[in-house]
Design goal:
Layout: H1 2-16, E1 20-23, E2 26-39, E3 42-55, E4 58-67, E5 70-77, E6 80-81, E7 83-92, E8 96-110, E9 116-131, E10 135-152
Antiparallel strand pairs: 1-10, 2-3, 2-10, 3-4, 4-5, 5-7, 6-7, 7-8, 8-9, 9-10
Length: 153
């Protein structure tokens, strides 16, 4: 568990130093969630899907994961400023109603390579930690479209 936590912290640090982005437009993205969950005296893998949309660096997401031998569905707000945060609610088939709170960092990659207005394809990869009644360390690659995005690497 300590090794996974250390690797997650290193990935968050590397992604947070990647560069600046202007993200003024609207966006829609979805993808998978992979990771590890720890809690209640056990640990398991975590697999799921997540998707949502937003305006600028503020997003709302919904997701479904399978971890610790239960299905967990959630809705969260994911604002970003220097580093991302998650706040929301979820429901586990075993654990019941739980808070969703966490910290994350992501690296967006424009598929057009351009710095202009209009809709562009985009992929992103993010890593993070969240508490959902259990501790989760995750990787979330996503794909979608973003209006008016410009990267300043």
């Amino acid at each position: 568990m300590q090794r996974a936590f250390t690797c997650g912290c290193i990935l968050v640090g590397l992604l947070s130093s990647a560069g600046a982005a202007r993200a003024d437009g609207t966006n829609v993205m979805g993808g998978i969630v992979l990771g590890f969950a720890f809690g209640h005296g056990r640990s398991t893998g975590l697999v799921g899907i997540e998707g949502g949309g937003g305006i600028g660096p503020e997003r709302a997401n919904v997701g479904l994961t399978y971890r610790l031998h239960e299905t967990f569905v959630y809705a969260e707000l994911d604002p970003w400023w220097m580093v991302g945060a998650s706040a929301g609610l979820g429901y586990g088939t075993v654990s019941g109603l739980q808070p969703v709170v966490g910290i994350w960092e992501g690296l967006p990659i424009s598929l057009s390579g351009e710095c202009e207005d209009g809709w562009h394809g985009i992929v992103s990869i993010s890593v993070g930690y969240r508490y959902t009644g259990a501790h989760e360390i995750y990787l979330a690659p996503k794909a979608g479209a973003w209006d008016s995005i410009c990267f300043g690497f």
